[in-house]
Write a structure and sequence with these properties.
This protein is mainly beta. It contains two helices and 20 strands. It has one domain: Immunoglobulin-like (Sandwich), CATH 2.60.40. The radius of gyration is 19 Å and the shape is globular. Copper (II) ion (CU) binds next to loops.
């Protein structure tokens, strides 16, 4: 019994030491750049709409798991600092994804660990959100047509896969982070991380089908560090 209590106290202390500390950043630098695909990008496949065609069939559905632009920029890659302990405060108080035309919009959403995610249902049909995660409890909930919003909490930092049990092609990701130095690339593969305290960091790039790549990055006061990372199959 005593041993259990001691272990619990130890874990509590470790968590406090590792927790991210948000505050004012003086002389922060910027990390900006592009994530590109190396080689010939595979074409997006058309996903057949097998259900609720009157709503889901309004849009053409092309595979959402790898989108490479004309200049090889990878859309929806997640860029984050993985060893940052201190820096700016979070400004997102609540994150939102919508189910619109039977697509999760955005495909990748960022939220604060311990924060809330609003899951909207603009379609007005039955969706069933089903999440896959290691650290956070899995969610498997029907969202009937009259239920305009479901609000869910995610306590732990990790990337959670989101699917819909009603529509097999629907796919999204929730990036739960305990610090705000995380960005999703735009349709040109570009990202920016701003107000980073000067220092040496590990920058991680993650893409759902291409995996992870980590590299060192140095941030200098009031300076922009340019980064280019290539990912491939
Ligand atoms: Cu659905």
């Amino acid at each position: 019994m005593t041993a259990t209590v001691a272990a619990a106290v130890c874990l509590g202390t470790a968590a406090q030491v590792l927790a991210y500390e948000g505050g004012e950043v003086k002389g922060g630098g910027t990390i900006a750049g592009t994530i590109t695909f190396s080689g010939t990008a595979p074409a997006r496949k058309e996903l057949p709409v097998t259900k609720d065609k009157e709503v889901c069939g309004k849009k053409q559905h092309l595979s959402y798991d790898l989108i490479v632009g004309p200049n090889k920029g990878i859309e929806n890659a997640v860029v984050s600092l993985i060893d940052v302990k201190k820096g700016k405060k979070w400004t997102i108080t609540k994150a939102t994804i919508d189910q619109n035309g039977c697509v999760y919009e955005p495909h990748v959403v960022i939220m604060q660990a311990g924060g809330e995610l609003d899951i909207l249902n603009s379609d007005g049909i039955l969706h069933n959100i089903h999440t896959y995660s290691k650290l956070n409890p899995s969610i498997n909930k029907a969202q009937p047509k009259f239920k305009k919003v479901l609000t869910e909490k995610f306590a732990k930092s990790e990337i959670v896969k989101v699917t819909c049990d009603a529509h097999s092609w629907m796919l999204g990701w929730v990036v739960v982070s305990d610090h705000p130095y995380v960005a999703v690339t735009n349709d040109k593969g570009e990202f920016t991380l701003s107000d980073v305290p000067p220092g040496h960091y590990k920058l991680e790039v993650w893409q759902e089908t291409l995996g992870k790549k980590v590299q060192d990055v140095v941030v200098r006061a009031n300076h922009e560090t340019k980064i280019h990372v290539e990912l491939t199959k």
